[in-house]
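Suppose you are handed only these lines of text.
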Amino acid sequence: MTKAVIPGTFDPVTSGHMDVIERATAIFDELVVGVAVSEMKNERGPLFDLNERIEFLRVATAHVPQVSVAPFSKLLVDFVREQGATAIVKGLRAMTDFEHEFQMAALNWRLDRRVETMFIMSAPDYMYLSSSAVKEIAVHGGDLTGLVPPVVQAALRKRFIA
Ligand code: PNS
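From them, the structure of the protein bound to 4'-phosphopantetheine can be written out as follows.
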C-alpha cells in the first residue's frame, strides 16, 4: 500500500494542482491532499478560508476515490508520518520553482529521512499557472475557464463580480 501527501496552500486549487493530483493517483494507492492553514503566507492571509479551500478540493476531487483532503498546521513531515504516508508529491513548473522546492525538499529530508519528496513535472498547459495569477485574473474579471475547477470559477466570480 503506497500513500503520499500532496501539500499546499491551495488558495485556490487550480487546474495545475488537479493535473498533479490526478497523475499521482497512477503512482500511489492513496493520496492525501494536505491543506496548510497558512496564516503566515502574507500579511492579509489567504483569500479563501481553510474550510472553503478544503471544500473546493473535496468537490474537485470527488471523482477520484483514492484522494482525501485534510488540513494541517504543523511540520509537513510530521503530518506525512501521522497520515501513515511515506512520500511528499509536488508539482514542478518552470525553473523558477526549482530553487524554492529544492530547498524545501532538502529541509524536509533533513527533518525526516524516512519521507521522500517526489516531483511531477507540470503539463505544458499549466507551466505558468499559479493560484496568485488566477486571483489576479479574477480581480480583473478575466476568463478562468480551464484554469480552475468549475467550483472555484463560480466562487471567484461570486467573490469579485457579484
Ligand atoms: O502552496 P505552497 O504555498 O507552495 O505550499 C507550501 C507548503 C504548505 C507545502 C509549505 O509551506 C509547508 O510545507 N509548510 C509546512 C511547514 C513546514 O513543514 N515547513 C518546513 C519545510 S520548508
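What can we learn from it? The chain has one domain: 3-161. The pocket of 4'-phosphopantetheine is lined by residues 7-9, 36, 75-76, 104, 107-108 (CB under 6 Å).
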